[in-house]
């Protein structure tokens, strides 16, 4: 997929988010009970969608900006930094969760500790599955 | 891995921005390469070498002990 098509796809998604957000806000006004979560979640979606539209739409009309954006997104050093940041974040998150499980168990919050331990377990299983798939592919 | 990017770039009278645009990376990547903080991929190494009309071995200095 060319970078221009990627941007068009992102614009499509951004428009979808914005429309969904507006629909949720309208829906919250039509409901008999005050559905505050619906309007605030809708507002967040709409703002996110509009912000992304503002970010991506000008690229379609400016070839130079589009080229610079493509270089910035595909630059191999940037990609490496993003991948390392993800990897380090995952490691830190897992370690912190394990520490939290120990602390929560010690203070008697066993249900929360179990839930957190289960989440870390699921994360590990997902990692192993993704690792297997990528190992088979490359 | 050491390289001679800065030397060849200055010999050619090219700015980091111009080299970055020519090989399809950001200026920061060229800066990191020149300072030896980042090692280029094979693809980028070939693009940079071809830009200067050199071989990869002439631009990037491989030392056995780096393995």
What distinguishing features does this structure have?
heterodimer; A: about 140 residues; mainly alpha; about 0% strand; flat; B: about 70 residues; 434 Repressor (Amino-terminal Domain); 5 helices; globular
Biggest chain-to-chain interface with counts: A-B, 8 and 13 residues
Shape of chain B: globular
* CATH architecture term of chain B: Orthogonal Bundle
What is the makeup of the main sheet of chain A? Answer: none
Please give the oligomerization state of what you see.
heterodimer
Radius of gyration of chain A: 21 Å
Helicity range of the residues of chain A? over 70%
The N- to C-terminal Cα distance of chain A equals 21 Å
How many angstroms separate the termini of chain B?
A: 10 Å
Residue windows where pLDDT falls under 50 for at least 5 positions of chain B: none
H-E order of chain A: HHHHH
Envelope shape of chain A? flat
**What name does the CATH topology of chain B carry?**
434 Repressor (Amino-terminal Domain)
Considering DSSP H and I runs of 4 or more, what fraction of the residues of chain B is helical?
55-70%
Count of DSSP-assigned helices of chain A: 5
The total of beta strands of chain B comes to 2
Report the order of strands and helices of chain B.
EHHHHHE
